[in-house]
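Deliverable D5.2: sample structural annotation.
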Amino acid sequence: MLVAHRTSDTRDPLPTAAERKFLKKIFQQQTVNKRNLKVSSTLYYFNLYRRAIGSISSGGMTSQEHDSTFKMSENDEGLQPDPNFCLVEGLPLPIFRPTTEEWQKHITDLRNMELRHDDILLCTYPKSGTHWLWEVTSMLVQGKAEYETRRQEQLMVDFVDVDLIEAMASPRILNTHLPFSMLPWQQIRDKSIKVFHVYRNPKDTAVSFYFMMKEFIKARRNVLLEFPDFFERYLNGKINYGSQFSYLRQFHDFTQENPNIPALSISYEDMKRSPSDKIKQIAEFLEVPASQQLCEEIAEACSFQNMKKQDVNKAVIEFTKQKNIPHPKLNMYRKGEVGDWKNYLTVAMSEQMDAVVEKELKDLPYVIQYL
């Protein structure tokens, strides 16, 4: 049963007539047992259901409000507030930006950001090979197997303010975990921006994502995240950046609907199996010269172990220093193996994931490889 406790925070306005009408319609469609809701005012009723449906007119609730506006009993799994993300337009986003309002402003800025014809955009779901693809692309553009002095996160549009992005020299190798709907997608289409996409099998992605979030949550809140709990949230999309399956679908749909956009989609597993061949394919897509020797040198430099070693030499991200944002040193490179999921998923979990993959991806062209 969900028990709501009113607090003294009254910053939110009372719902308008239009909002009440919309709320009533949504309320009638919800599967939540309305008799189990104990609310003490119209204001609180409005706030609670705004949280439940994710986002209506005011744009969702902040991570601070997740903690302060109301509390829920632990036996309601569907509507548990999560202090590890902000809900923005229905999508859970990291608390690097601590409020929904700050995230919404940044998304608005991104949608209006001016792209350049020589921009390169790397689109990935988290823990799918973003660092590898970004470093490889940088080396190909430079024409030499030398590591970038900057961190990949310094060109990640999710985290960097637009004014800093606009000040960067060309060519910019931008990267993001955001869906196209939160990006300047019309410019991507109209300027035919080169778009890369790397995807990874969901079982290994879930395990890798779990260990990153486990480390982050422990550093930030000193709370131990258990894998079974994370796995359920992963399948339901109740984690940072939402469902992997929704991400894959939106990428496919957008590129199919806009065939003039030069887009290359490759799998993490193919990159691991034949790195030199994939680097050559990327070079051809970028239309940059790359000899077989250069491709092999880049493959060696960008092997998992070498990238893991060089990562320690890169400085703390400058924009986090400027904002005085706590930035625990997370281990972005754990194993990088294909098939590590077998050490963590039970038979039941594996079968559950298989069923979800079959349902969500059966009509999409992605080749899911677990070996």
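Annotation notes: Strands lie at 85-88, 91-94, 120-124, 173-176, 194-199, 263-267. The chain has 16 helices and six strands.
The annotation will be released with the project's public dataset once the embargo ends.
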